Amino acid sequence: MVSLERIEEARGAAQGIVQHTPLFPARMLSEIAGVPVWLKVESFQRTGSFKIRGAYECLRRLPPEIRARGVVTGSAGNHAQGLALAAQIFGVPATIFMPVFGSIAKMQAAKAYGAQVILQGEGFAEAVEAAQQFARETGATYVPAYDHDDIICGQGTCGLEILEDLPEVEQIVVPVGGGGLFAGIAAAVKAKKPEVSLIGVQSEGADTAVRSWREGRLAEPAPVRYTLADGIAVKSPSERTFEYIRRYADEMVTVDDRSIARAVLWLLERKKIVAEGAGAAGVAAVQSGNIQLRGTTVIVVSGGNIDAKTLSDLIEREMLLAHRYFHFFTAVPDRPGGLAALLKLVAQAQGNIMSVHHNRIHPSVPHGWTGVELLVEVRDAEHIAQIGRLLQENHYEVRVLE
Asked: Are 156 and 248 in contact (CB under 8 A)?
């Protein structure tokens, strides 16, 4: 296990490189949980996630002659950016293998830091395999995303900051993919304040760490299913990182994508924090009741690198599910003023029309009429019901669309 002294050394060495990220109070979560809740916002970190901490420490400790050969890694995206920036700082070439269908924003960011990005495979495991093969063929140093003591030491600096800023902390909630962040925080926190409880959160689509913790041994990895939390969509922690989970995790839980999406929207709307799916996993676990908090708690928001298109789609879907949008289909007479009469009623009910689509050939629409699909911004479910009643009273048939 890495020592507290090594983590403290890593922190000192990273001064001026790694940012000391803020802790923000989360009053609404505190009301839900019944205890004080704070957010450790690693999405404000350089590269938009905690990964620069470990990547910088790993490259710092490489002998200069080894660094000069270049570095390579496989990553879903956040480690890619962290390593790319660290390589830029040290002036060494970096090659990053990323999944073909990975985050476009993360790919572009890694390139912007000067790395060569190669798309390989459909998931994290295939990208890692390609990167390791590249290292064998070229002599470049393979820098793993989590399975390395230097990586763990770097991530542990996040734990030191939490203890410094909130000495009264009693629980820390950490998203878990490969387990490097959990391992680092655990090593730092348990060495300085062993009574602090540590809770790991995984996506239901990639839950090997949770199953392993429950079984008390590293379980056989299951295929990774699609999840909004791509940053923690890892088949399995390593034996190294699982040892920290086995020793130090007080609880390990999973959370579904529906809860993660709701947490992303809540962080954006209420806290003005952009979080990716993995970064919002801890918040999702508290909001959904998957974990019961028992004291002053810090939730680590581990990253904020989410594609604009993904975020836009998520917002639209969540607005529908939260009864903030009313999406419906109806029909109007196909003559001048037909659509205007419908829109006037929606406006009368104080609905804000977001989009209108005509469909003259829909089989449910009689000849001489035109189908109309509307997306309307509303206040809540009662407002939806109010608009629906008004339309029906005026002889419009309303079919709610998902």
From this structure: no
Q: Which residue carries 């420490």 as its tokens?
A: 57
Q: Is the dihedral of CA 384, 386, 390, 396 positive or negative?
A: positive
* Separation between Cα atoms, residue 73 and residue 52, nearest integer Å: 14
**Is-contact 155 180, C-beta < 8 A?**
yes
> Tell me: the pLDDT tens digits for 145-196?
999 999 999 999 999 999 999 999 999 999 999 999 999 999 999 999 999 9
3-state secondary structure of 309: helix
DSSP secondary structure letters along 97-136:
EE-TTS-HHHHHHHHHTT-EEEE-SSSHHHHHHHHHHHHH
Per-residue pLDDT tens digits for 65-81: 999 999 999 998 899 99
Contact call for residues 232 and 202 (beta carbons, < 8 A)? yes
H helices of 180-288, where? 180-192, 208-215, 239-248, 257-271, 281-287
Using DSSP's 3-state secondary structure scheme, residue 172 falls into: strand
Q: Which residues 6+ apart lie within 8 Å of 81 measured at CB?
A: 47, 48, 49, 51, 52, 106, 109, 110, 113, 305
The DSSP call for residue 303 is: B
pLDDT greater than 90 at residue 125: no
Contact 267, 213 (CB under 8 A): no
Q: Tell me, what's the pLDDT at 296?
A: 98
* Kind and range of the H or E run holding 355: strand 352-359
| pLDDT of 361 | 79
| Contact call for residues 244 and 155 (beta carbons, < 8 A) | no
Nearest-CA neighbor of 8 among 242, 180, 164, 166? 164
pLDDT digits (tens, 9 = 90+) for 11-42: 999 999 999 999 999 999 999 999 999 999 99
pLDDT above 90: residue 226: no
pLDDT at 242 over 90: yes
